[in-house]
Write a structure and sequence with these properties.
Blueprint lengths: L6 E6 L7 H14 L4 E6 L1 H8 L3 H18 L7 E4 L4 H11 L4 H5 L2 H9 L9 H14 L5 E4 L4 H19 L21 E4 L35 H9 L22 H9 L3 H12 L5 H27 L2 H29 L13
Parallel strand pairs: 1-2, 2-3, 4-5
Helix pairs in contact: 2-3, 2-7, 3-12, 3-13, 4-7, 4-13, 7-8, 9-12, 10-12
Bound molecules: tryptophan (TRP).
Length: 365
């Protein structure tokens, strides 16, 4: 472990297995960052309780699924810490203090939170802890004082809140002048970095289904919308999903000849995203538009492309499925490492807040 490298923090809420949307939205970035950064990847198991407090066994299974997926895609637990949120108490302690730095109405106006309330049809029936999770996410991040936070586009409102918390903390407790530029907060004595998000190569991968009947927009890939291709799907499932994929009946692939409009046609959105065979793409895009090649040919090629990507992941996953102890062990070691950083942040935060009365230690055996 190197403590001199700048840190990266990101995470997943364990709601099920990882799919291709996660892969291009964030996983690719994580794999690329493992070498140059001290990486912390968090499984936000407490956040899963916001909507599934009545299904603890399901949440436990999802935690194991996500950790297994991470190992399968190539997250290396020797280099990157795989962290179980519920065993990093400093996160909860920071959450309480941070919750005092944000007006309640500001939290409720968080667009991602508002969208989730709408999508999940929660009305006003959500628990107190549901809006609280967004403040918790500020603590997930700032507990690690990271330089980079690789996320998908839907997480940007949470990152904006995190930036507000950091500024406020530094102003109130570290004497940082309110006029200070975000990038200068640490140099001016602030404890919390005003972090920059790092978006993935593809901000929003579409699902395999038909567009929204009202808006005409394709849905994003999501487990709950039943339109996902999972990194653990077997070859035949991938084939079936692709062969049944929605295609635009008008064969629209773009505004200009040869262009692809992924907003209209998921088949081509997937090719654009995953097929690196540029000459094939160019040739078939034109043939497709001209009606000289059918969906089946283009779909068959996509099956090949996706199975080439997923096959090694699938194979490694099978090996880890046989060794669940190893998966838990990776979490234990990563969480232990995470606590070293998070406890240090908490101690420094308490010092800044003048609540450092005596020392305390925490250990995972
Ligand atoms: N909210 C994120 C999601 O649903 C998961 C998450 C929790 C996270 N804590 C985080 C992401 C901290 C980035 C940083 O995917």
């Amino acid at each position: 472990m190197s403590t001199t490298k700048p840190r990266v923090l990101t995470g997943d809420t364990p709601t099920g297995r990882l799919h291709l949307g996660h892969y291009v939205g964030s996983i690719e970035n994580r794999l690329a960052l493992q070498d140059q950064y001290d990486c912390y990847f968090l499984i936000a198991n407490k956040h899963a309780f916001t909507t599934r407090a009545d299904r603890p066994a399901e949440i436990r299974q999802s935690v194991v699924d996500i950790a297994t997926d991470w190992l399968a895609v190539g997250i290396d637990p020797e280099r990157s810490a795989m962290v179980l949120q519920s065993e990093v108490p400093a996160i909860d302690e920071l959450t309480f203090f941070f919750s005092m730095l944000l007006p309640f109405n500001r939290v409720l106006r968080n667009p991602t939170l508002a969208q989730e309330i709408k999508d999940k049809d929660l009305g006003d029936k959500y628990p107190f802890g549901f809006p609280l999770y967004t403040v918790g996410q500020c603590a997930d991040i700032l507990a690690f004082r990271p330089q980079l936070v690789p996320v998908g586009e839907d997480q940007l409102p949470h990152l904006e809140m995190t930036r507000e918390v950091a500024r406020r903390f530094n102003q109130l407790y570290c004497g940082v002048d309110p006029q200070t530029e975000d990038a200068d907060h640490l140099a001016r004595g602030g404890l919390m970095p005003v972090i920059e998000p790092k978006l993935g190569r593809v901000k929003r991968l579409v699902g395999i289904g038909a567009p929204n009947a009202e808006t005409g927009q394709l849905h994003k890939m999501s487990k709950s919308l039943n339109n996902a291709i999972f990194l653990s799907d077997d070859a035949d499932t991938v084939r079936k999903k692709v062969m049944s994929m929605y295609t635009d009946p008008k064969r629209i692939t773009g505004k200009e000849p040869g262009e692809v409009d992924p907003a209209k046609n998921p088949l081509w959105a997937f090719h654009e995203t995953f097929n690196s065979d540029a000459p094939w793409l160019q040739e078939h895009r034109e043939l497709y538009r001209a009606g000289k090649v059918g969906d089946v040919v283009v779909k068959k090629k996509l099956v090949e492309v996706l199975n080439d990507l997923i096959e090694p992941i699938r194979t490694r996953r099978k090996q880890f499925e046989l060794r669940p102890d190893e998966v838990i062990e990776a979490l234990r070691r990563g969480t232990r490492r995470a606590n070293q950083v998070a406890e240090e942040t908490l101690a420094l935060a308490k010092q800044a807040m003048k609540q450092d009365y005596f020392a305390r230690t925490l250990s995972i055996p």
